[in-house]
Amino acid sequence: MRDAYHEELDSISENLVEMARLVGSAIGRATTAMLDADLNLAESVIANDDKVDDLQRQLETRAIQLLARQQPVATDLRIVVTSLRMSADLERSGDLAQHVAKVARLRFPQSAVPRDLQATILEMGQLAQRLMAKAAEVIVTKDVDLALQLEQDDDKMDDLHRTLFQHLMDDRWKHGIETAVDVTLLGRYYERFADHAVSVARRVVYLVTGDYADEIDPAAAVQASTQAAPAKSADAS
């Protein structure tokens, strides 16, 4: 009975990792679709968001069943509750990748991004994908130190976001209002995507330590990561 219980907990974690990998891939593909004005790729990203939604529903069903049948406590309860919150972050990330793809579809056959901003948007897309890949790794490894690093990595996304606004506010902007709206929205989508990746990592910190990320002493975080059991919880019997 306990083996089946822990298999369900492991399945929840596997769902989260798969969601993170799907949305990380989606944001990268959506960025390519937008910069290259690739309609087929944009449509693929939009359609594939259903997979992320299905995984979230599966995870919620498993979590609710575990809460009802097993009444988990301590670490196991944190796993279930925190996983539900992470799945919401990941589902929203998928929506944001879909939004980027929809901008690409809307402006086809043109690119929504002016040539002089394409390098910045490409960097934002690549950074978003790396952040989500790191969040997936954090889910697998329960590495608190790595989780805390995402906060610093996200600073680069904030810098890129500010760069976009500097271009938009420049008196020499010559691309019109419609493009300005597109770029504003895109910047917001990438910035929020990165925030959700950071949120996932912060929730892993709470899962492992029982403390919130902004309350963690870095030295204690390393010790917590070392002691965290990746496969079985402290409540196993």
Give the topology.
Elements: H1 2-36, H2 39-70, H3 74-107, H4 118-141, H5 144-169, H6 176-209, H7 218-227
Polypeptide structure, described:
It contains seven helices and no strands. With 237 residues, the protein is an all-alpha fold. Helix 4 (118-141) runs antiparallel to helix 5. The chain is elongated and about 60 Å long.
The ordered H/E elements are HHHHHHH
Please give the largest β-sheet: none
Give the overall form.
elongated
Rg from Cα: 20 Å
Number of strands: 0
Structural category: mainly alpha
Helical fraction: over 70%
Low-confidence stretches: 229-237
Helices, by number, come to 7
Q: Percent of residues in beta strands?
A: under 5%
Integer average pLDDT: 88
Euclidean distance between termini CA atoms: 10 Å
What are the key terms here?
0% strand; 237 residues; single chain; disordered C terminus
Briefly summarize what is shown:
82% of the residues lie in helices and 0% in strands. The chain is mainly α.
